[in-house]
Amino acid sequence: MRTIGILCTALLVLLLSLGPVGTASAQEAPAGAATESGGFVPGGALGNQSDSEFWRMIRQGAQGNVSIPDKKAGILIQSEGESWRALRNGPLSTAGIWVMLGMVVLLALFFALRGRIKIEHGRSGRLIERFNLIERIGHWLTAVSFIILAITGLNILYGRYVLPQVIGKEAFSTISQAGKWVHDYVAFAFMAGLAMIFVLWVVHNLPSRHDLIWLAKGGGLFSKGSHPSSRKFNAGQKIVFWVTILGGLSLSLSGWVLLDPFQYAMFAKTFQFLNIFGFNLPTEITVVQEQQLAQLWHGAISLFMIAVILAHIYIGSMGMEGAFAAMGSGKVDVNWAREHHDLWLEEVEKAAADEATKVPAE
Q1: Phi/psi of residue 75, each to 5°?
Q2: pLDDT tens-digit profile of 252-287?
Q3: What is the C-alpha to C-alpha distance for residues 117 and 111, in angstroms, rounded to an integer?
Q4: Is the separation of the CB atoms in 286 and 268 below 8 Å?
Q5: Euclidean distance between CA atoms 197 and 213, whole angstroms
Q6: Which residues of 267-284 are buried (b: 16+ CB within 10 A; e: fewer)?
Q7: CA–CA separation, 52 vs 58, rounded Å?
Q8: How far is residue 341's CA from residue 187's CA, in Å, rounded to a whole number?
Q9: E strands along 121-279, which residues?
Q10: Interaxial angle between packed helices 133-154 and 169-201, expressed in degrees from 0 to 180 and rounded to the nearest 10
Q11: How many whole angstroms separate alpha carbon 311 and alpha carbon 258?
Q12: What is the full DSSP assignment across 64-132?
């Protein structure tokens, strides 16, 4: 046995002196191969002299058939993923903070200069129905679900930078996991609310000539005694409505892509359509790239909508006296209606007068 051990040791030393099987020694290494001082690179690796074509092939993915079920795994390195991560954690996150913070600063500055917009003629004591129960349900279904989605979505984007240091990693993990499930399912309530308010209010949110005058006067928000005419919704409310409907639709579509991953080619088809108008956008998009684009778009639209809704919440609550009642009890003071929606008030009062003068059928 001792003799066999000596022979094996001698054979191992001989093999090591010759280099790995199937590779050349340092003196016989092919041109371009990396070498180390006093020997060769173990395993025949290319080291600092790596062939760029070799890595390019790895990034392009396996050519031919991929035998494993997940064909996406044939791509070992996805360069676009590096760009996605840099955009998400860089410009998108940074711009989102500035947009939301900027809106808060603007609203605070507006409140400091203008104060709360009062009912100039005081409350009349007479109430008129502005929104019925179905309209209020549609509004609050959309509003509450959006707030929940905004909070859970902001946690996904920014939470890991702040909350673990405040509540600890385990609590943050639990909250984030629960928030993910809440975000996924509350999204359907948001989509239902969008459909409701669209059906209920789209006819009242079409542009009219009064909108131009309202916008030219800044809606009367910046000066006392200015009350530009409007019907049920003024130009500012129409802008919020269409931002909510179109932005919400875009969020719903991109969110659906994220909920059911690797199944849709939303961006490829969108780019094909836009290219008709000369945009020259890429249309050969992999399913992984589709997910990355959907995530970036979903985040960008969400951050923009959060900023817009912050302004809407401000005006509808502390920013304007009597405004919250419209969506609270559904009834507003007649003087408030006359100052902010005079044409709508005239229509309602005329309809009520006509109804009162109708002769009952015999």
Answers
A1: -95, 110
A2: 999 999 999 888 888 999 999 999 999 999 988 888
A3: 9
A4: no
A5: 25
A6: bbebbeeeeeeeeeeeee
A7: 10
A8: 33
A9: 127-129
A10: 150
A11: 28
A12: S---SS-GGGG-S--HHHHHHHHHIIIIIHHHHHHHHHHHHHHHHHHHHHH--B--TT---S-EEE-S-
Distance (Å, rounded) from C-alpha 235 to C-alpha 130?
17
pLDDT at 19: 47
Return the structure tokens found at 300: 């960008």
3-state secondary structure of 333: strand
Distances (CA, A) of 179 to 150, 175, 252, 253: 11, 6, 18, 20
Pairing of strands 127-129, 331-333: antiparallel
124: left (phi over 0), alpha (psi -120 to 50) or beta: alpha
**What are the structure tokens assigned to 153, written together?**
């979505």
| Angle at CA of residue 240, ends 184 and 303, nearest 5° | 45
CA 298 to CA 238: how far, in whole Å? 23
Residue 15 CA neighbour count, 13 Å, CB half:
9
pTM of the shown model: 0.79
Under 8 Å between Cβ of 331 and 123: no
**What tens digit of pLDDT does each residue of 119-153 get?**
998 999 999 999 999 999 999 999 999 999 999 99
Give the bridge partners for 39, in sequence order: 36
In 3D space, the residue among 121, 178, 45, 41 whose CA is nearest the CA of residue 334 turns out to be: 121
The secondary structure element, H or E, covering residue 24 is none
Length of the chain in terms of residues written: 362
- Distance set, CA 313 to CA 147, 310, 316 (Å): 11, 5, 5
Using a pLDDT cut of 70, give the percent of the chain over it. 78
Q: What is the pLDDT of residue 22?
A: 41
> 90 is written with which tokens?
């860089």
First to last CA, the chain: 124
Cβ(172)–Cβ(163) below 8 Å: yes
Both structure tokens of 61: 């993915």
